Amino acid sequence: MTRDEVTQLILQAKLRENLSWQDLASAIGHSKEWSTAALLGQMTLTKEQAEKVGALLNLPEEAILQLQVVPYKGSLPSGVPTDPLIYRFYELIQVYGTTFKALIHEEFGDGIMSAIDFSMDLSREADPKGDRVKIVMSGKFLPYKTY
Fold it and tell me: Is 5 marked active-site?
């Protein structure tokens, strides 16, 4: 069983059991953002976490084992994404990527924001003109070192 097949089983079971990502995150014991990434194949679960999710979703043993394997990260194809929601993030980076880079370098120096030592919070923000998606990302700054 491949990790992609496990992801499909998870999505089918989530729908069948009428569970939310938050429900699954509560079983795992981490944020809904990290847990969703894990269940979509981007993070590794511990044996205990994989067994809890496996029981909740009635997953086969081989799927539970696969959830404990370090995944090949990066779930998007290398071309421009075609899904409208994902494309907007691509567009955001196309428009503001150089701005993020310039401001981070001015504030912190030459380096990058970690996607490993990282957290994210996604929430709904009420607005009279239409609700807004609020995403807060926090990543450790990693300076480039000389040697």
Answer: no
Yes or no: is domain 3-66 CATH 1.10.260.40?
Answer: yes
Q: Which of 5, 20, 48, 114 is catalytic?
A: 114
Burial level of 20, CB count in 10 A (0-12/13-18/19+)? Answer: exposed
63-84 per-position pLDDT tens digit = 999 999 999 888 777 788 889 9
Identical topology for domains 3-66 and 84-143: no
Whether 62 is catalytic is: no
Pair 68, 86: CB distance under 8 Å = no
Catalytic residue at 114? yes
Q: Which CATH number applies to 84-143? A: 3.30.1160.10
Query: pTM (2 decimals)?
Result: 0.84
Domain boundaries, the chain: 3-66, 84-143
